[in-house]
Amino acid sequence: MNSIHAAALQMISTPEVATNLATARRLIAQAADAGAQLLALPEYFAIMGAKDTDKLSVQERFGDGPIQHMLAEAAREHGVWLVGGTVPLVSDDPSRVRNASLVYNPQGECVARYDKIHLFGFDNGSERFAEADTIQRGDTPVVVDTPFGRVGIAICYDLRFPELFRGHDVDIWVLPAAFTATTGRAHWEVLLRARAIENQCYVIAPGQGGLHPTGRATFGHSLIADPWGEVLALVAEGEGIAAAELKASQIDRVRRILPALQHRIL
């Protein structure tokens, strides 16, 4: 790994795609101007609808559409690596989309696509979520080779499945999310720090962070954690940027003094 400055961009997305794209552009520019070279937007950054089916009306074919055009243009304009949170892409089921995280290089080229594998299901009697109703799951983990190291991509609910993060020799995991306020208070930070500790890598986790116009509440607390599990930067609530330097020396040190990855049996 080579050291790099990174930023997790926290939003409170609305049902209006144009509004959200303008906010994302502004945050990307702010982070890039401050020196960030690897930037990540949250899950559903382009739309948080009043209904789960609202994203069907703005789905795009892979490689085309206003959401993807904005991501490519922003990466190219600012000369950064950009993880485009998630984008609703066309699937082979007209009633569902693929919830995809797209990675763009500084030339504005999409160099990787990860379709969310684990789909959130939750029902505590007062809150109910069933992503499988409107999302078609992916089936393939994705790791991207970059000039600064190997980057793995996961999305939100994937965080609860540690086996997804194992065995990929990754330096940085990027996990866009829209954790609910309920589950976030209970599990968000502890799970992110656990994934960083057990894989001895950095974790960049941009989230949705507050009360949305639709009344939905997301937990926020976008953060960057290091391989020792220390939180290097955090934005609790509201729109903002969590930025930090990801030092190659810290990965080297942690893996040298506690070579747990070499001690794995299974």
UniProtKB/TrEMBL annotation:
Name the UniProt record assigns to this protein: Nitrilase
One of the record's GO molecular function terms: hydrolase activity, acting on carbon-nitrogen (but not peptide) bonds, in linear amides
Domain of life according to the entry: Bacteria
UniProt keyword Hydrolase, yes or no: yes
Pfam families, sorted: CN_hydrolase
Keywords linked to the UniProt accession: Hydrolase
Domain called CN hydrolase: residue spans: 4-248
Statement: the UniProt record of this protein carries the keyword Cell inner membrane: no
